[in-house]
Write a structure and sequence with these properties.
The structure is a single chain. The protein has one domain: Alpha-Beta Complex (Spore Coat Polysaccharide Biosynthesis Protein SpsA, Chain A), CATH 3.90.550.10. Strands 1, 2, 3, 4, 5, 6, 7, 8 and 9 form a nine-stranded mixed beta sheet that branches. The termini are far apart. The chain is built from nine helices and nine strands. By secondary structure, the protein is an alpha/beta fold. 38% of the residues lie in helices and 23% in strands. The longest helix is centred in the last third of the chain and has 21 residues. Helix 6 runs parallel beside helix 7.
Length: 262
């Protein structure tokens, strides 16, 4: 089984090394890494070229203007030669060296179409301190009516599923990942499996964690995605996930306090 990891980049020079190195450290070696760059003006491509020989032929990359991050992801999915496809953002990195090994083991079951796990957030100044732990353990497809979804950076799906049900809808500004998962998990009921594992370390400040305006756009996109897919929801339903998110942050702070005292 080959796994394709897709990374979309644009002026990602400050963080990309962490991403590439975390892929190279993976114990599972039957992978390819596709970097889709949108025409970076910084040293992003110089870093890609620097690391390319270390991959031993497992890195492919393209640089051309695109219509944003979801367009880049779609290009990567079309280029993918792997049986299973996952997304690793250019400001994120794998939390441990056995992530792809665990993905391969879970996806070796032919009755599983996709799988997902957990992620955690950090601030750029201290990558070792968790500010929020996002677990997908309690997720159920019915929760998507309330705006919940599995942690997308931990989501690995068979390429055949993308080919059958489609990839990312470029008309969504910041929540095409939600619409894509809604379409596959809720509407088409693909067979998924949860793995109790922290997959990815995510820096805050990305497209979906960058302030009030971003959250307003997410709310708008979620409502539109649900309506487009024939699923009833409303602003009150979608608002229920914010107390849940606050609870995750508070629990993370409490856990950090206990760790400090030990």
């Amino acid at each position: 089984m080959k796994i394709t990891v897709i990374t979309a980049t644009y002026n990602s020079g400050a963080t990309l090394r962490d991403t590439l190195e975390s892929v190279l450290r993976q114990s599972f070696r039957d992978f390819e890494h596709i970097v889709v760059d949108g025409g970076s003006k910084d040293n992003t491509l110089a870093i890609v070229r620097e690391y390319e020989p270390l991959y031993g032929g497992r890195l492919r990359w393209v640089c051309e203007l695109d219509k944003g991050i979801y367009d880049a992801m779609n290009k990567g999915i079309r280029m993918a030669m792997g049986d299973v496809v996952g997304i690793l953002n250019s400001d994120d990195f794998y939390t441990s060296n056995d992530v792809l090994e665990c993905v391969a083991k879970a996806m070796s079951d032919p009755n599983v179409d996709a799988m997902y796990g957990d992620v955690h957030f950090v601030r750029d100044g201290d990558l070792s301190r968790c500010t929020r732990y996002y677990t997908s353990r309690p997720f159920h497809r019915s929760w998507m009516r309330f705006g919940f979804m599995p942690a997308h950076p931990s989501f690995y799906c068979r390429k055949a599923v993308y080919e059958k049900y489609g990839a990312f809808d470029l008309s969504y500004k910041v929540a095409a990942d939600f619409e894509n998962l809604l379409r596959m998990i809720f509407v088409h009921r693909i067979r998924t499996r949860y793995l109790h594992k922290d997959f990815v370390t995510m820096r805050t400040g990305g497209a979906s964690t960058s302030g009030l305006r971003s959250h307003e756009q997410i709310m708008h996109d979620h409502l539109r995605a649900l309506k487009q897919n024939g699923i009833y929801s409303n602003l009150f339903f979608l608002g229920l996930r914010y107390p849940y998110k606050i609870g995750e942050i508070l629990m993370t702070k409490i856990n950090n306090i206990f760790k400090t005292r030990k």
